[in-house]
Amino acid sequence: MVTIERSIRIGRLAIEECFLLRMATVGILLALAAAVVLLRFQRLDELPPGIPGDENRAGAAALGALQGEHAVFFTNQVNSGEDAWGIYALALSTLLFGRTLLAVHFPTALGGAGMVFAVFWLGRLLFGREEECRQATPWRGLIVGGVGAALMAVSINMTVLGRTGYSKSTFMPLLLTLCLGLLWWGWRERSWRRMALAGICAGLLPYTYTPARFAPFLFLFFGMSFLPSLRVFALEKAGRELRWAASFLGVAGLVAAPLLIHFALNPEHFFLRSKALWVLDPTRSRGDPLGAFLVNVWEHVSLLGLSGDPAPRQNYGGRPMLNPAEALLFWFGVGIAVWRWQWPAYRLLLIWLVTMMFPAFLATDLLGPSTIRILGATPAVYLIVGVGLWEAYTSLRERFYRERGTGAAAAAGLVISVAILVQGIDTYRTYNYKWAFAPEVHREYYTPWLNVVQAMNEQPSKAGDLYLFPKFGAFGHEYLGSGHKVGG
Predict the structure, then answer these.
(1) Omega cis (within 30) before 216
(2) How does pLDDT run across 236-271, given as a tens digit for each residue?
(3) What is the pLDDT of residues 372-420, one digit of tens each?
(4) CB under 8 Å to 109, separation ≥6 — which residues?
(5) φ and ψ of 135, to 5 deg
(6) Where along the chain do its domains lie?
(7) Which of 239, 261, 300, 403 could disulfide-link 360, Cβ–Cβ 3.0 to 4.6 Å?
């Protein structure tokens, strides 16, 4: 009788915990949706307030693509390369919204919003179960994924970058996150379909943004990290594992094949952009390549809590990517991941972080460190923050609140939710009422010239009329213009 009553009590507790878990998941998803709507999509037809040179050139290429000028890699008049993903995303957006600011910004906002939800999903996938003992740890996965995604959603740095015309920069980390999640899921569940989907995501990565070319090293290094454990496997079992890897790589290779063939036929295009930013170039390193590289490494690592990207188009006020509390949790999480290196989830985050930071380490310019070049690593950054928070909470609970587990969890959840809400409100006000009115932002986006172009579009085009603008091509006329003859 006692055994039956105990079983019933355990069953009720399990049902209650399952209900609480589902409610918490729904609550987090609703909060993330509200955050991305307010911070990624609101006033997207107004902010950012114009089109700078790089985005204008992408817009001109998108208009060309709509007229049949197709390519797997675009070159332009300034001898710079444009990856195909951003061009075709803008072309599709132009079909939907016309030649407008909304069309320019929408693909980037969509990729940034998708990245928030993908980080939540991947966090639950990686940390929702102990792989070694196959024990479910749903609350750990929920907190790591939820906190990482929420902090990414309310970050001022990610908000500024998530609304520009650089759609390639947000879709690259989105595809990489989806790829790693599907790869993890497919390998664990032995699903050919998920492995194929992971391969498709991996094959699409080279079309997005130059730093994505480091993703193969991420896959290679993470795969090699399992080699020590393969020594105890039978040769036949190791062969079965390699077949799963071959299926992923085969699909990825087929999807990436058109671009790979293009670079094989035009090898000079592969380094068309990166050679202009190569930190080891003697003209850029001033005769000290190693010193310049180490300085560049320090400057980009400092973005994670010490200093910020100085470019107004990519940040506000030079703020670091992580605020002091986030930075403290991030470096604590890094320490935990190093300590638990033998666990695949922690190992993946560390390899991801270091590998996808390298594009920034190897590229430099006069403006200083660039957040956009470490975007491939940002999902790992925010997941590590989530890991740091979870580990800090569990350590404090075991030491001080072991007898009040439910109450301590509720109090911690309330404090974290309020802190994220306050940061979200601050980001909303900063972006819409400070960043949006900053003079340097309007200079970067050529806002006065946007008004001229819009006024010009309202005028009938007459044969023989010629409009002269300074810095032609640098303020969006090629994309936003309505066919007037222009000179510069």
Answers:
(1) no
(2) 566 677 888 899 999 999 999 999 999 999 998 888
(3) 999 999 999 999 999 999 999 998 887 776 666 677 778 888 999 999 9
(4) 40, 41, 44, 162, 163, 170
(5) -95, 130
(6) 2-451
(7) 300
